[in-house]
Amino acid sequence: xxxxxxxxxxxxxxxxxxxxxxxxxxxxxxxxxxxxxxxxxxxxxxxxxxxxxxxxxxxxxxxxxxxxxxxxxxxxxxxxxxxxxxxxxxxxxxxxxxxxxxxxxxxxxxx
Length: 111
Hints:
Number of helices: 1
Number of domains: 1
Number of strands: 7
Mean pLDDT: 88
Strand content: 35-45%
């Protein structure tokens, strides 16, 4: 999907293992465009190094003009650790399919 903002229904289908176990390939999520992210939110991002690619990641912290984001599955994620800060396009709050549920912010790591 090249321009999600043009989609009348802000839905995105997840592809790939980077957000497992939170999200898996085939999950459909609802995007809230223009909502400012907070640390630990699930977000839809765009990369300067890969302008045609959109990714679902977890916001970690603001990083200059973008956000440092990481996948929940560090063994299967290409994220800010490799590509640098990302532009947040929208915040994800709900998985609609296959098991609808609110997606809460993950608790902060201890230590």
